[in-house]
Amino acid sequence: MRIHVIGLALALATLPLAAQTNDVGVWYATAQIKDSTGLSFDNAKGFGVSFNHFWTGPLSTEFSVSSLRANAGIDIAGTRALDVGRLKLMPFTANLQWHFARGSMFAPYIGAGLAYVSAKDLSSADLDAAGIGRVKIDHKASWDANAGVNIGLGKMFAVAIDGKYIKYEPDSTAAGTTEKLKLDPVVISAGIKLRW
Asked: What's CA 96's distance to the chain center, in Å?
């Protein structure tokens, strides 16, 4: 049995790069979130995972999920006057991607697809003291645009830089009042991929 497993691993390792049809990625992510309706957001940080399947040479579908966190507040003259807690977002994306020069060491790609963003409520002592209380932020389905580059490291590994613009304009509700937020995160990720 051990000989069969070793033989399979060696066979995968010797496949041409362009013949490999799947990859799994692990990512470190940062995101810029638009300030909206008086709220200011620090740059978000987090992690993500992805799975990509190639249907033909250049065409693939990628499924990804990230977990992002950003401190939020109300700023006056560039100074944070009110802490509104930590925004926690979990974007799920399903993208159709087109890869250029896939068999080369540097392989850029573009893509677009569907996005669904899950968000946690905002809460803080400052919101409670101001009589606002918890701020509910809706989950929302939308779309995203995607571009990046894979840098091959041998036959089975690659490092990658990936960018996603996610259209995300959820309703927020606090103290009986609803406001639309235009957050539209731009997520920049760096990761490593295993290919087979």
From this structure: 15
What are the structure tokens assigned to 111, written together? Answer: 């893509």
CATH of residue 143: 2.40.160.20
- What are the pLDDT digits (tens) for 5-44? 444 444 444 344 445 699 999 999 999 999 887 889 999 9
**Which structural domain, as residue segments, surrounds residue 59?**
2-195
Q: Which residues have CB under 8 Å from 22's CB, separation 6+? A: 51, 52, 53, 54, 195, 196
Cα 103 to chain centroid, rounded = 25
Burial of 57 from C-beta contacts in 10 A (0-12 / 13-18 / 19+)? exposed
Domain count, the chain: 1
* Per-run averaged pLDDT (10 residues), the chain, 196 residues: 47 46 97 89 97 94 98 86 94 98 92 98 93 94 98 94 98 91 97 96
Task: Answer for the pair 39, 12: CB distance below 8 angstroms, yes or no.
Answer: no
- Pairwise CA distance, residues 191 & 54, whole Å: 19
